[in-house]
Specification:
It comes from Hibiscus syriacus (Rose of Sharon). The chain has 163 residues and is α+β, with helices and mostly antiparallel strands. The chain has 5 helices and 7 strands. It has 2 domains: 123 residues, Alpha-Beta Plaits; 31 residues, no CATH class. A hairpin with a 4-residue loop joins strand 4 and strand 5. The radius of gyration is 21 Å and the shape is elongated.
């Protein structure tokens, strides 16, 4: 079993939940002690409509816990309607294993998530598609842009018009 402890919960106490909430993820070990760390407060991003969390995961006997598993647990814990509005990232396993720490963002809606999240995180969560470009196209664009300075550089980077 793995104990997941939310170290930083939002100031607005999303949907009546308090700080320091924890829940179990099934694993290979049956008994786990809880973390003694004190929960702290983090800000609520009003302009983003998102809760910011630092997630502390205790997982003895397991190498790590998958992000999909964490998203599922956070969905149930915070009673989120759409699991696509939850983003977990930057998880690092502590030396010796058994514990990982990472960040999480819970947006009020998927539209807000698409508006404020970086493109690479949207691609990782399946909310956007990656545009594949060839090496030659990227190099041609770079070399065209090198010849021009200022505002015109963005137009020069576009594909050359055929006559």
């Amino acid at each position: 079993m793995a104990l997941i402890n939310i170290m930083l919960a939002s100031k607005r106490r999303r949907r009546g939940k308090g700080t320091g909430s924890s829940f179990f993820v099934p694993g290979s070990i049956s008994s786990v002690t809880s973390s003694s760390a004190e929960p702290e407060e983090s800000g609520f991003f009003h302009e983003w409509s998102a809760d910011c969390l630092i997630i502390d995961v205790l997982h003895p006997g397991r190498p790590n816990v998958s992000k999909a598993e964490l998203k599922g647990k956070l969905t149930r814990m915070y009673e989120v309607k759409d699991p696509n509005s939850i983003f977990v990232f930057k998880f690092r396993t502590h030396f010796g294993g058994g514990k990982s720490t990472g960040f999480g963002l819970i947006y009020d809606s998927v539209e807000n998530a698409k508006k404020y999240e970086p493109k690479y995180r949207l691609i990782r969560n399946g909310l956007d598609t990656k545009v594949e470009k060839s090496r030659k196209q990227m190099k041609e664009r770079k070399n065209r842009a090198k010849k021009i300075r200022g505002v015109k550089k963005t137009k020069a980077g576009d594909a050359a018009k055929k006559k």
